[in-house]
Amino acid sequence: MLTKLWQALISGMAIGSIYALIAQGFYITSITTNTLNFGQGDFLMIGALFGLTCYLAFGGPSMLSFVIATVLAVGLLAVMGAGLERIAVRPVRGLTSLSWVLSTLSVALILRNAAQLIWRPEQHPFPSPLGSKVLRIAGAGILPQEIFILAVSISVMILLMVFLRRSLLGKALLAVAHNSNAAAAMGINVQRMVIFAYVLSSVLAGLGGVLIAPITFAYAYMGTVLGVKAFAAAIVGGLENPLGILIGGLIMGVVEQIAAGINSNLKDGITFALIILILALRPTGLLGKR
Amino acid sequence: MKLSWAVFVTLPILFVCFLAGGGLNPSPAWADHIKIGFSGSLTGGTFDYGQAAKRGFELAIKEYNEKGGYQGHPVVGVIYDDETQPAKGVQNTTRLVTLDKVIGVIGPVNSGVALATIDITQRYQIPHIISIATAVPLTQRYKSAPKNYIFHLSLVDSAQIALMIDYVKKKGCQRVGMMNDTTGWGESGRQEALKQLKENGIELATEIQRFAVGDTDMTAQLAKLKEANVDCLISFALAPEAVQILKSMDKLGYRIPLVDTWALLAPSFLKLGGKDLIEGAVTVSSYTIELSERSRAFHEKVVAEYGEDFYPIATAQTYDATRIMLRALDKVGPDPKKMRDAIEDMDDFTDAVTAISPKPYSKEDHEALGPGKGFLMTYRNGELVRLEP
User: Fold this and answer.
1) Could you tell me which residues are beta bridge partners of residue B95?
2) Tens of pLDDT along chain A (290 residues)?
3) Quick check: B252 and A7 CB within 8 A?
4) Residue B223 to residue A261, Cβ atoms within 8 A
5) Crossing angle of helices B219-227/A2-33, nearest 10°?
6) Which domains does chain B have, with CATH numbers?
7) Is A159 part of the contact surface with chain B (CB cutoff 8 Å)?
8) Which of A255, B26, B75, B128 is a plausible cystine mate for B121, CB 3.0–4.6 Å?
C-alpha cells in the first residue's frame, strides 16, 4: 500500500511538472495583458515536432543534438509568439472582452492542421537524450527524462521569479501589468512589453515541447489535453504566481495518480472535483492574491 | 482600427471553414462514371489503418480499370477522410450515397465511425463492405432486416477475444487482469471479453482498470493489478497506449504477459516502443504476407507500387473487399440492390489474398473472417512471428 502511494507520488510529480511547465506560459501573458494564449498546448506541439526534426537532423539521441534542437525550437517559437501577438491578439484586444479566446484558439486549430500536413498525423517517437532505463527512488520507478522535466520546471519557476523581481526588463513587464498607462508615462514602451510577454510565453512552450515529447511522443494532437490540464493547474495554483502554478501542477498530477489508484474510472472525476473544491475555498487559486 | 475589424471578421470565418473541412470540395468532374466510395480515417487516431486501407482500395480499382473496367468504362474511386470522427464519417457516407451516387461503399476504419455510418448505407440500400473496423454489431444490427447491406471483411472482435482468452488459458495464467481505454472500441471490447471470460469460467483477479487515450503513465492502474498478483493482462489499448502500459510495467518492475487485439499489429507499436520494450507482447491476426502464394505476390505488388508495405493486413483486407465489390459489379451491373445479392451469393472468389473462403458470405453470415481464420502472433526481436499453438 505504501509503495503504491509512493509510486503514485513520484509518477504524479513527473506528470504534474509537465502541467506546471506549460502553465507558466499562461502566467506571463496573463499578468501583462490579461489575455492568454489558448493555443499554448499547440505551440508546445510545434516546439516538439520541429524540435524532433532538428534533433534527428543533428544525429539523434545525444545531449548536444538535444541542446541544438531546443535552441532552434525555442527560436522558432519566439518568432511565432511575436506573430501571434501581432495577428491574433493585438487586433482584437479591447474590442470585445473575449475575442482573443477565439482568435488564439483559431491559430491553434490552424497549427494543428498544418502539423498534420507537415509531420503526418502519426505519433513520432522522440528518444530521450538520457536513455530509457528506469531509475529507482526508494523503490519507485521513474524515467531520467521525467526527473529532467521536474528539474527544469522548478528552475523555470525560480528564473521567472528572479527575472521579474530583479531585472530591469522584468520590472518593466510587471509595471505594465500593474498599470500600463502609468508605465507608458514613465517611458516604458508598453506595446513592446506586450510582444515580449508573448515571446517569452511561447519560448516556454517550445522548451516544454522538446522536454516532454520523449514522454508523450510527438504528434499533432499532443497539446490538446495537456493544454487544458495545464490551464487547470494554473487556475488551481493561482494565475498570478509562478510558485503557485508549480504547486498547482504538481498537485494535479499527484491527485490524478492517486485517484487512478483508488478507482481508474474516477480518475478525472476525482481530480476535477478537487479543483472545484479548491476554487470554492480559494477563488483565486492556492497562492493567488485574495 | 481597420485591420482589427478585418481580423475580427475573417478569423471566425476561417474557424468555420476549418470545422467544415473537406466539405467544401467542388463537385468532381467525373459525374457520369460508375463510382465506388471509400470513407476512412486518413488522419486522426486510426490513420495508419486508413492510409494502408486506401492503398488496397486504389490498387484494386486501378487493376480493374487496367483490365478494361466495366464493359469498357473505367470505375472511379471516390476517397474521403473521416478524421476518425463519427460525425465526419456520417457526412462523408451521406455525400457518397446522395451526391456522388456511388454503387458501393468501402470503409470506415474505426469501429465507432463505422457504427455511425452503416445506418446510411442500409437506408439508401447501397452495399457496404467494412474492411477494417471490428465491432461485433456491424453485421448484427441489420441481421433481421429483409436485406442486410452491411458486409464485413476483418476479424470481428468476438473472434479476436476468443483467441486472446485462448492464449490466457494455454499460458496457464491463474489470475487474469484486464485494462481498456475509454473509447467506444475499448468499452465494447471489454464487454465482449467479460462475456467470454464468464463462458470460459474465468474470473478476473481484480476490477477492470481503465485509462484514457493519450495517458502517459499507467503505474497507478498496474499497481492495483500487481497488488492482486495478476499474472496475465488482457488489454484493449491502441499501440501508443500499449507502449505506455509496457513502460509503466518497467517502472513498477512488474512485467507480465500482455495480450491485446490486432491493434498491436500497427507498425507504430514497434516504432514507438522499440524492439526491447515490446518483446513478447501478444496480438491477434488473420493475415501475414507469408499466408499464401497470392499474399506474397500481393505484397510484391504493393511494394512495387508504393515503395513499401507498411501495414499489410489493412491493405490486403481492403483490396479484397474492393475486389468483391467490383466482382459483384461485373456479375450484375451497376445496380446496388442486385450487387448486394451478388455479394451475398458470390461463391467464386477464389483469388483472395486474405484468408477468406471462395464463398465469403451467406444470408445468415456477413462475416468473411470467422473465428477459425484468426491466429495469435507475438514480437520476437522486433519481428512479428506466429505464436505456434
Assistant:
1) none
2) 788 899 999 999 999 999 999 999 999 888 888 888 999 999 999 999 999 999 999 988 899 999 999 999 999 999 999 999 999 988 887 665 788 889 999 999 999 999 999 998 889 999 999 998 999 998 899 999 999 999 999 999 999 999 988 999 999 988 888 888 898 898 999 899 999 999 999 999 999 999 999 999 999 999 988 999 999 999 999 888 899 999 999 999 999 999 998 888 888 888 889 889 988 998 888 887 76
3) yes
4) yes
5) 170
6) 32-154+291-369 (3.40.50.2300), 158-285 (3.40.50.2300)
7) no
8) B128
CA–CA gap between residue B261 and residue B239 (Å, rounded): 10
Q: Over the stretch A242-282, which tens digit does the pLDDT of each residue have?
A: 999 999 999 999 999 999 988 888 888 888 898 899 889 98
Residue B81: closest CA among B92, B69, B73, B97 = B92
The separation between CA A196 and the C-alpha centre of its own chain, rounded to angstroms, equals: 17
Residue A280: partners with Cβ closer than 8 Å, 6 or more residues away: none
Please name the residue that has the C-alpha cell 491485446. Answer: B260
Question: Bridge partners of B285?
Answer: B375
Residue of A13, A52, A123 best to disrupt the B interface, most CBs of B under 10 A:
A123
Q: Which of A7, A112, A215 to mutate to test the interface with B (most CBs of B within 10 A)?
A: A7
Cell of A69: 534542437
Give how far A175 is from chain B: nearest CA, Å: 26
Nearest to B8 among A91, A141, A225 (CB): A91
| Contact between A234 and A252 (Cβ < 8 Å) | no
Residues of chain A contacting residue B18, judged by C-beta atoms under 8 Å apart: 106, 109-110, 113
* Cα(B388)–Cα(B256) distance, integer angstroms: 20
Domain A2-126+139-281 belongs to what topology? ABC transporter involved in vitamin B12 uptake, BtuC (1.10.3470)
- CB of B215 closer than 8 Å to CB of A226: no
Residue-wise pLDDT tens digits, A197-230: 999 999 999 999 999 999 999 999 999 889 999 9
**Are A172 and A193 a contacting pair, CB within 8 Å?**
yes
Is B223 within 8 Å of chain A by CB?
A: yes
> Which among A87, A122, A134 is the nearest to B251, CB-wise?
A134
Q: Which residues, including other chains, have CB under 8 Å from residue A60's CB and lie 6 or more apart? A: A127
Judging contacts by C-beta atoms under 8 Å, the chain B residues touching residue A11 are 217, 219-220, 251
- At residue A253, the 3 state secondary structure works out as helix
Which of A281, A172, A140, A42 has its CA nearest to residue B253? A140
Strand, coil or helix: B385: strand
Using a CB-CB cut-off of 8 Å, the residues of chain B touching A261 are 220-221, 223-224
Query: b/e per residue, A180-196, with b = 16+ CB within 10 A?
Result: beebeeeebebeebbbb
> Quick one: average pLDDT of B98-115?
94
pTM, two decimals, is 0.87
B209: which strand partners?
A: B179
